[in-house]
Design goal:
Strand order of the largest sheet: 2-1-5
Number of helices: 9
Radius of gyration: 27 Å
Number of strands: 9
Structural class: alpha+beta
Length: about 230
């Protein structure tokens, strides 16, 4: 004889669970992987793209759906979307230990890759391999924060490497080309020189610049991270 599941139970798999304890009860929502952080960062704005199913659960793994009166008592509303938004904002993402370790390792690798792209050996002006950056991060005791994206952790990571590892490292310089109208060239020349560490070349094509710029200047980025390999 087949066993019938209660009508208020829904089985879900491959989800990221966000849990919030409120009013003495536990409430959970079932989300697509990686969408919770995108929602919190403002990248994702549609609840339909965040939730696997538009419902609030007492226990996602058992498929137990929260009752309307429980939502009303805990959140002051039984409107699912309003409750979901509060859980997304304040809830804790439940991650299995194996998955958490994998995510942290991937995040650490991403941070090291960005540092390698933006920094160089001060002596040679050449970039380091990502593996050397990872070793320096370990030596410096860099702790990766799961709740932040890689880019937001690069500055702190570089500071720790510079202060607490044996790896000499600095930010790579940016190379730019500045074009100004001939009428403004003499007046701005010293100011521009003061802003640059080195001036590679000066080309005073006065008539062409005046005609093409029409009284306005232009800054063109040649290299975001200048290294010995691309100079």
């Amino acid at each position: 004889m087949p066993i019938q599941q209660p009508s208020n139970q829904i089985k879900l798999t491959n989800v990221s669970i966000v849990r919030l304890k409120k009013g003495g009860k536990r409430f959970e929502i079932a989300c697509y992987k990686n969408k919770v952080q995108e929602w919190r960062n403002g990248v994702e704005t549609s609840l339909d793209d965040v939730l696997q199913i538009s419902n609030v659960f007492m226990n996602v793994s058992k498929g137990e759906v929260a009752k309307s009166n429980d939502l009303q008592k805990a959140f002051g509303t039984s409107t699912v979307d309003d409750v979901v938004k509060e859980i997304l904002k304040k809830g804790e993402v439940q991650v299995a230990e194996k998955e958490r370790d994998h995510d942290l390792a991937s995040l650490r690798k991403e941070i090291a890759t960005i540092v390698a792209e933006k920094c160089v050996d001060p002596a040679t002006q050449r970039p380091y391999p990502v593996g050397m950056i990872e070793k320096a991060m370990a030596e410096a005791g860099v702790s990766v924060k799961a709740g932040k994206n890689a880019k937001s952790q690069v500055a702190e990571t570089l500071r720790l490497i510079q202060g607490h590892s044996t790896l000499p490292i600095q930010r790579a310089k940016m190379r730019v080309r500045v074009v100004v109208p001939a009428a403004e060239g003499e007046r701005l020349q010293e100011q521009l020189r003061a802003l640059a560490e080195t001036v590679e070349k000066e080309d005073k094509g006065e008539s062409w610049e005046t005609k093409e710029c029409k009284g306005k200047g232009r800054v063109e980025t040649l290299t975001f991270a200048a290294t010995a390999d691309n100079n």
